[in-house]
Design a protein that fits this description.
The complex is a heterodimer of chains A (about 350) and B (about 400). Chain A has about 350 residues and is an alpha+beta fold. Helices cover about 25% and strands about 20% of the residues of chain A. In chain A, the strands form 6 sheets. In chain A, strands 2-1-5-3-4 form a 5-stranded mixed β-sheet, sandwiched between helices. In chain A, a hairpin with a 6-residue loop joins strand 3 and strand 4 (about 60). Chain B is built from 17 helices and 8 strands. In chain B, strand 4 (about 155) and strand 5 form a beta hairpin. The longest helix of chain B has 30 residues, at about 90-120. Chain B is globular and about 85 Å long. The chains are: A alpha+beta (about 350), B mainly alpha (about 400). The interface of A and B includes residues 93, 97, 112 and 125 of A.
């Protein structure tokens, strides 16, 4: 692709033609504040934060939607732009509830960060609208007053998941997200993942922690063999939530419903933590030495009495590649059979 | 041929006259000191390190615990350093209130010095009078901030709240009665023959030597060097006030005593001017990134709520730069060297403790004197271990 040379804030920058001004600025390490733009989504252009001045244009332009042109001269920061951005933020806050103290997002909320950074003051709220709070999945709660209608969730549902379960209805201050095709929803939480504010929160972990109080532990999902990367939020040694870095691992922030919401088993009191042996008809707790000893002696006995092919093994997709490899090795080399199968063969 | 054997004894760290937990290892020949080694660090609380894990506002109460005899002065030094780093200009009314608090703290610090210094040498009466008057300032502190010894009243960008008419009234009352009390101290000590014998020509340090030891504050001025940060590098509107810097001639214990006694008077003079000319206006800088919005706004305005949330939970951020700022503490030049890294927490905070340098000269001052003079000399340097050990 042809290269384009332009000047941003006095820096000469060369980028591939067809890039946006925002991409060009970011490639040179120049920050243009944004709210609706997301690295995994096409430009949305709803938040009115990324305005820049371009030589030859009377009005400031949106950096996320403007393509670069040769010899363009761009200014990303000026008093006018600063106050325009501040006004945009003020408008977004006009219908915002006084929720930060009880909002799960508070502390890592993009809206909050930007409102503070731009020193927004004197928001005189005047919008009184009634909203519909129904959301296609009960795992996610939608708080319409907190919503800034940035359309990230809608775009993610349509672009990343190709589902289009949700959409925006209404105009201006009464606009909101609504379940356009609720039957299509997979409860994957892609919308939750991209929401910059606390308008979408996970219903499981509501009010359990604060972003700065919980420890974030990077781990790999155990549900299947894909190896999706995820971050468990741990507080007092309990898993209370899930956050996923956007640009990491094979999944790049996406998870399925099990991966994103199915973490409560970790601290479930019903979870098996010790091996059990059936003695006289009831299952009794025992030690690993005894359990493994029993399995080994029974395997040897069966092998001796009925032959090695009387034993078969089936492995699980929740194991890693290495574990599965070891498993078949064990079956073939130790037991001596080729009766090896796996649940994912179906 | 006769042979002299020296004796080594421990003084402190639990000795009441070592002003904290200073341990001095003294080598004696008879009653004469041939060598002395100060051992410090027994009050180390890691304040500088603790500060690295707190936001800028949270560090303020830690600074009270440096020179706890004059806590507001430490607040002032720290807050001004942060303000310098963040580029904040404090409104005039706040600066005046800070001056009042600081000078009251200086008087408080000097009260403690006077009482314990005299007590150490054997003049028991003075401490009762000194502490009686110190109590008055403690009451003023309590009325204003809720705390007597460690007010933590200053904030980055101003002070915690505006002063009340009651505060002004009690400060005025104090200004009225204190000169007479000061006269009383003088009558007890200044011409007292025992006091003079115990303090004159003891622990003498020339001006050059005092400077090369890094002395500052009253201990330096006692040796005749008129260096005072308030005059040399005026801060917090100190150049608005008319006051003098008392200096001594000989640099002995007695001269340092006289300098501090005169400083009582000068501090009072500054307080009087500050109270009488206290300007109207806000007591906090008008900066949405630093100043907490009023609580009434928080219950109505989401932007105020957001700001309060961010300021309280995360705190204002400072740029990745470094600054040094010093104020005249009650013991000398109290400096803060602060490095920011773009976050809400200091990257490094280094405190220049005047007492640390004063203590380093102790062996030099003590050597050759009698054991009983050690106490007079420590008292005259007015060291506080909370600040040395940090
Ligand atoms: S979405 Fe952000 S700004 Fe709104 S209440 Fe939650 S934390 Fe506060
Ligand atoms: S729910 Fe979140 S992502 Fe969706 S429009 Fe509202 S603020 Fe944006």
């Amino acid at each position: 692709m042809e290269e384009v040379k332009l000047i941003i804030d006095g820096n000469n920058i060369t980028v591939p033609g067809g890039s946006t001004v925002l991409e060009a600025a970011r490639s040179a390490g120049i920050r243009i504040p944004t709210l609706c733009c997301h690295e995994r989504l096409e430009p949305i252009g709803s938040c009115k934060m990324c305005f820049v001045q371009i030589n030859g244009c009377a009005e400031p332009q949106q950096a996320c939607k403007t393509r670069v042109q040769d010899t363009m001269q761009v200014t990303t920061d000026s008093e006018q732009l600063f106050s325009m951005r501040r006004e945009s933020l003020r408008e977004l806050l006009l219908r915002h509830p006084l929720d930060c103290p009880v909002c799960d997002k508070a502390g890592e909320c993009l809206l909050q960060d930007l409102a503070y950074e731009f020193g927004v003051t004197d928001v005189h709220q005047h919008v009184n609208a009634t909203f519909e709070t129904f959301y296609p999945t009960s795992l996610i709660r939608y708080w319409p007053e907190r919503c800034i209608v940035c359309k990230r969730c809608v775009t993610a549902c349509a672009e990343i998941k190709q589902l289009g379960a949700i959409d925006i209805k209404g105009e201006g201050p009464t606009a909101q997200v609504y379940p356009a095709k609720p039957e299509r929803c997979e409860s994957c939480g892609e919308c939750l993942q991209v929401c910059p504010t606390g308008a979408l929160t996970e219903n499981l972990s509501r009010y359990k922690t604060r972003p700065w109080l919980s420890k974030r532990v990077m781990t790999t999902c155990t549900y299947c063999g894909c190896g999706c990367q995820m971050q468990l939020n741990v507080m007092n040694n309990r898993v209370v939530g899930m956050t996923v870095p956007n640009v990491f691992g094979v999944n790049k922030g996406s998870l399925c419903v099990k991966g994103r919401f199915g973490y409560e088993f970790i601290n479930s009191p019903e979870r098996l933590k010790k091996p059990l042996i059936r003695k006289n008809g009831t299952l009794q707790e025992t030690t690993w030495e005894e359990a493994l000893g029993l399995v080994a002696s029974q395997f040897s006995r069966i092998k001796k009495e009925y032959g090695r092919d009387s034993i078969a093994g089936i492995s699980s997709a929740r194991c890693t590649n290495e574990e599965n490899y070891l498993f078949q090795k064990f079956m073939r080399a130790v037991i001596g059979t080729n009766n090896v199968d796996h649940c994912a063969r179906l | 041929m006769s042979e002299t054997k020296t004796m080594t004894i421990n003084m402190g760290p639990h000795h009441p006259a070592t002003h904290g937990v200073l341990r001095l290892v003294l080598e004696l020949e008879g009653e004469t000191i041939v060598n002395a080694t100060p051992h410090i660090g027994q009050l180390h609380r890691g304040i500088e390190k603790l500060a690295e894990n707190m936001n800028y506002q949270q560090v303020i109460p830690l600074t009270d615990r440096l020179d706890y005899t004059a806590a507001s002065l430490n607040n002032l030094g720290y807050c001004m350093t942060v303000e310098k780093l963040m580029g904040i200009d404090v409104p005039k009314r706040a600066r005046y209130i800070r001056v009042i608090m600081s000078e009251l703290a200086r008087i408080m610090g000097h009260h403690l010095w006077l009482g314990s210094h005299a007590l150490d040498i054997g003049a028991m009466t003075v401490v009762f009078y000194a502490f009686k008057d110190r109590e008055k300032i403690m009451n003023i502190n309590e009325e204003l901030s809720g705390y007597r010894l460690t007010p933590s009243f200053l904030r980055i960008g101003g002070v915690a709240k505006d002063v009340t008419p009651d505060f002004i009234r009690s400060v005025r009352e104090f200004i009225e009665v204190f000169p007479e009390a000061l006269e009383g101290y003088h009558r007890l000590l200044t011409d007292n023959i025992i006091w003079r014998k115990r303090t004159m020509n003891i622990g003498t340090l020339s001006a050059d030597e005092a400077m090369s030891w890094g002395f500052t504050g009253p201990s330096l001025r006692g040796s005749g060097v008129a260096y005072d940060v308030r005059k040399a590098f005026p801060y917090s509107s100190y150049d608005d006030f008319d006051f003098e810097i008392p200096v001594g001639d000989n640099g002995d214990v007695y001269d340092r005593y006289l300098v501090r006694m005169e400083e009582f008077k000068q501090s009072l003079k500054i307080i009087r001017q500050a109270v009488e000319n206290l300007p109207e206006g806000p007591v906090n800088v008008d900066n949405p990134l630093v100043t907490n919005p009023a609580i009434e706004d928080v219950t109505e305005d989401i932007s105020a709520l957001i700001r309060r949330f961010k300021i309280q939970c995360e705190g204002p951020t400072a740029p990745a730069e470094e600054v040094y700022h010093a104020v005249e503490g009650s013991k000398g030049e109290l400096g803060f060297y602060l490095v920011g890294d773009g976050t809400a927490q200091p990257y490094r905070l280094k405190i220049r403790s005047p007492c640390f340098l004063l203590t380093s000269a102790l062996p030099r001052l003590i050597r050759g004197h009698m054991l009983s003079d050690v106490i007079a000399i420590i008292g005259s340097l007015d060291i506080v271990l909370g600040e040395i050990d940090r």
